[in-house]
Structures are given as C-alpha cells and as structure tokens.
C-alpha cells in the first residue's frame, strides 16, 4: 500500500515537472510567432537568425511538435494511473522518453534558427531529426509495458494503444520520409486525406480524455461514425503508396467524411459525467474542433478554395485548430493535476488572445480575397497585439523570487548575463557585431555563444539547488578562468580582436568577485 502511494506521488511530481518544462517550449513558440508578426509589419532586423523565414519555421514547428504532442502522449499513463496506479520503473522510462523529446526540440530549434528549413508548410525541420523521435518512442513503449503490467486483465483500449505505439516509431520514419512519405507528396494538392487523418487522430484522444475525466465508467456510443472515416483514410494511404496521387474529387470526398465527427463528439460529450472545471476546458476544445471541421469543409468547396487557400483565412483556421482545439484538449487532460490551470483568468487571457488573432487574420483573409478594403497592415498590427495578450498566459507559471542570499544574487546575475546574454548573442550578434566594428564569420561564434549560455545554465542550477550551490558556483568560476585565459591568448596573439579582450575581462570580473566576497568566507567557515 505504501509503495503504491509513493509511486502515485512520484507520478504527480513527474507530471507537474514536465508539464511546466514543456509549456516553456509553447511560450517560446508564441515568442517567435510574435517576432514573425513584427517581421510582417516591417520590423526586420538584419540578423542571420531573426529573419522572417526562420521565425515562421520555428513558430510553426514548436506549435506542432512541442508542448501539445508531448503532453498528449501522456494520456495513456494518466488513464492507467487513474485505473490501477503507476509504475516506478515505468516513470523512469517515461522520463527518458521525455528528455529525448526535449533534445529533439533543442536540435530542431537551433537548426531552424541557423537556416536549415525545407520550406514545407508543416514540416520544416530536417528529416534526420525524426530518428530522435523514433528513439524516444522506444522508451515510450517500454514505459507503457511497465505500466500495463499493473492490470490483471488488459482493457481493449490498452490493447489498441499498445499496438499503435509499437508501430508508431517505424510509421513516423515512413510517413515523414521525403521520398515515399505523405508530407512532401501532398504539399501542392488539396490534401483532403491528410485532413481526414489529422482529424481521425484526435477522435480516440477525445475518447480517452473523456474516459480519464469521467466520474464512473464511460461507454461510447455511435461508434460507426468513426469506423467509416478510419477505413477510408487507411485506404487512401495505401492508394498513395502503391498506386499514385488522389484526384481532387477523391480528396474532397475524404475531406467531407470528417463531418461524421460532429454528431459523434456531441453524443460523447452529452453522455459524459465530468466535473465542471474540466468539462469547460473540454467543451472549449470540442467547440473549436467542430468549428474547424465545419469551416474547413466549407473552405474546401472548389469555388471558395481557390480564393482563400494559402491566404490569412487559412492561417486563422490553423490558429483555432492548434491554438484552441488541441491546446484546450491538453488543458482538460491536466486540469486535475496542475493547480496553476485552476487560475481561470489566465486561460481566459490566452483565449482572448487567440480569438483576437483568429479574428484579425480572418478579416485579413477576406481583404486578400477582395471582399473588403480594410488594410492588411492594420489587421497585422492587431494580430501582433493579440499575440502579446496570448503570451500573457505564461505568467500563471512564473514565480518570481524576491529575496536572495549574497551567493544566490551572484548566481542570479550569472543567469541574466551569461544565460540570457548567450541567447541574446545567438539571436542578434550577426546584426550587432558589424555595428560595433567586430568581425563576424557566423560559424565558430555560435559555438562560443552556446558555451556562454551553458555557463548561465550552471548558475541557474546553483540558484535552484541550494544543496549543490557552492560546488556548482565553483564549477562556473573554474570554467570562467580557463575561458578567459583562452580569449586573452587569442587576443594577445592577434587571432581575435577587441571582443576577445572584452569577454576575457568580463569573465575575470566574475572570478574576482567570487574570490573576494565568497571563497575566503567559505574557507574560514570550514576551518
């Protein structure tokens, strides 16, 4: 009994930690989206990294492959934990899966930031990074196996889930493959089968969320409404692989099969018995999904599609789909686990922001189609302002510490100067260096800036872990001594200019502050 309680506590701690880490990636995606929106208004900085193409690619990629899919993948474990508890070993594998996903996101963001994008609508990052996701998927499978051992009799949904996740890593590598995959073969077409596939993927997730949140056993009805689209979708995948491209009429038919989900989700929601706060979040998600489903089918009518396809109305459509529909799907999943989600005002702020973005972009779409004369530039200003409003939701998760020890304050300055300073240099050095008269090759400098940021990370770890604060601070000092000596050597030998001397003096300043104000006191106390 005690072991079961400990595992449950560990699971709750695990969920809280990774929800908050992963939502930071969501906030980062919003941040780059705001920068891209500013780019569209003409506020473009001549930087290798902050150009509009990179900003758009990172924004879309983080929205599609960051917080939302990672947290959705926790759904089976949340449900198993509710039904039979959690597995300590399973949590370990789930933790490894999550960390590898974070590594994928870091690789994705950095490679896109330095210009490695493929110009695809929803899949800009390099194909090779899918192997990181597939590797993470292996630990996901191990975690699921450990969790389901807690059942004496496996439920049907577990059996289905197990089969899906077992083939998922291999399916990912096939579907995303540039030669035989679905992504590149449907870039120019109406891609109705992809729309059906994406909608189909959400239906079992809605079912499991309702099952998770439902008080008592939930029995799904009207299942024929998801069986029919499923059969046709897999038929379309096989057709593309073995026969060739689908005709427009064939894709149109597949697109319209998504309308079967409207009565299905209505029936499931009405049959559910869920607490008010969770049911509100779920309702927002379902309404957004149904709106996107119905609007998407209207836009797919040929006479309308050729007017609106690829203009701001479609972008607005995507904001509702991901920014409201899928985001609130995740919120409903975790609302009983994350206390910050009970702060209703922050979710309302976010919702107002996204709806504002949607409205501005929708009107802009009608402007671009020639139905009104409101300047697109003005609407993009509103889009940017509402983006800032949506970004405000992240403050629900930020807790500012107001008092620090002297050593803690030293580490805080290290976080701000090296951690944030390194990121600042990665984003803006190619713009600032020429202005300051420094040479900039755009190659080795990014390695140096990354190294600077990692020194800031060490200061952050020292700040957050009092037990190891002294040893981590010493580590940062040792790094600064060797780094400053190397930069001085490069300056004195004429291989680098004044910037190397400035970095040397900057690091030495931190070293001397530590030695004068902290090192001697620590030694005296030990004596």
From TrEMBL:
Name of protein: Membrane protein
Source taxon at top rank: Bacteria
Key word Disulfide bond present: no
UniProtKB keywords: Membrane, Transmembrane, Transmembrane helix
Transmembrane stretches, start-end: 21-45, 57-81, 93-113, 125-144, 156-176, 196-213, 225-246, 252-269, 281-301, 313-335, 347-367, 379-398, 410-436, 442-463, 475-494, 500-519
InterPro entries in the record: Cyt_c_oxase-like_su1_sf
């Amino acid at each position: 009994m005690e072991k079961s309680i400990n595992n449950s506590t560990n699971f709750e701690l695990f969920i809280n930690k990774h929800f908050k880490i992963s939502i930071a990636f969501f906030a980062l995606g919003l941040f780059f989206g705001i920068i891209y929106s500013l780019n569209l208004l003409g506020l473009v900085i001549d930087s290798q990294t902050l150009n509009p193409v990179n900003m758009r690619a990172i924004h879309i990629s983080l929205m599609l492959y960051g917080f939302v899919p990672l947290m959705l993948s926790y759904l089976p474990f949340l449900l198993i934990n509710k039904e039979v508890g959690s597995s300590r070993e399973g949590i370990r594998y789930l933790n490894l899966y999550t960390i590898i996903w974070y590594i994928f996101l870091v690789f994705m963001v950095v490679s896109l930031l330095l210009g490695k994008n493929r110009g695809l609508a929803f899949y800009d990052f390099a194909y090779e990074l899918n192997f990181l996701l597939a590797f993470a998927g292996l630990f996901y499978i191990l975690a699921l196996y450990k969790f389901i051992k807690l059942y004496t009799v496996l439920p049907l949904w577990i059996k289905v889930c197990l089969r899906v996740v077992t083939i998922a890593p291999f399916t990912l590598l096939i579907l995303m493959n540039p030669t035989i995959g679905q992504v590149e073969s449907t870039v120019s077409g109406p891609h109705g089968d992809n729309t059906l596939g994406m909608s189909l993927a959400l239906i079992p997730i809605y079912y499991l969320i309702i099952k998770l949140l439902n008080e008592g056993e939930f029995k799904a009805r009207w299942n024929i409404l998801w069986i029919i689209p499923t059969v046709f979708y897999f038929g379309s995948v096989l057709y593309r692989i073995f026969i060739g491209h689908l005709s427009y009429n064939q894709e149109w038919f597949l697109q319209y099969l998504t309308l079967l989900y409207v009565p299905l989700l209505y029936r499931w929601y009405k049959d559910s018995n869920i607490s008010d706060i969770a049911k509100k979040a779920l309702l927002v998600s379902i309404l957004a999904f149904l709106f996107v489903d119905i609007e998407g089918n209207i836009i797919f009518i040929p006479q309308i599609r050729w007017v609106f396809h690829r203009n701001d109305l479609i972008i607005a459509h995507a904001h509702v789909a991901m920014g409201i529909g899928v985001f609130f799907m995740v919120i409903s999943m975790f609302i009983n686990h994350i206390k910050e989600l009970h702060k209703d005002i922050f979710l309302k702020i976010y919702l107002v922001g996204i709806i504002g973005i949607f409205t501005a972009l929708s009107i802009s779409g009608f402007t671009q189609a020639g139905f009104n004369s409101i300047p697109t530039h003005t609407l993009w200003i509103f889009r940017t302002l509402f983006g800032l409003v949506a970004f405000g939701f992240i403050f629900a998760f930020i807790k500012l510490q107001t008092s620090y020890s002297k050593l803690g304050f030293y580490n805080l300055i290290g976080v701000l100067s090296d951690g944030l300073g390194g990121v600042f240099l990665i984003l803006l050095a190619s713009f600032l260096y020429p202005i300051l008269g420094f040479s900039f090759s755009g190659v080795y400098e990014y390695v140096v800036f990354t190294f600077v940021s990692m020194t800031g990370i060490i200061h952050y770890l020292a700040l957050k872990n009092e037990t190891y604060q002294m040893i981590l601070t010493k580590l940062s000092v040792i790094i600064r001594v060797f780094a400053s000596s190397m930069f001085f050597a490069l300056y004195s030998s004429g291989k680098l200019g004044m910037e190397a001397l400035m970095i040397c003096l900057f690091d030495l300043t931190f070293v001397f502050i530590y030695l004068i104000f902290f090192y001697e006191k620590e030694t005296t106390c030990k004596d």
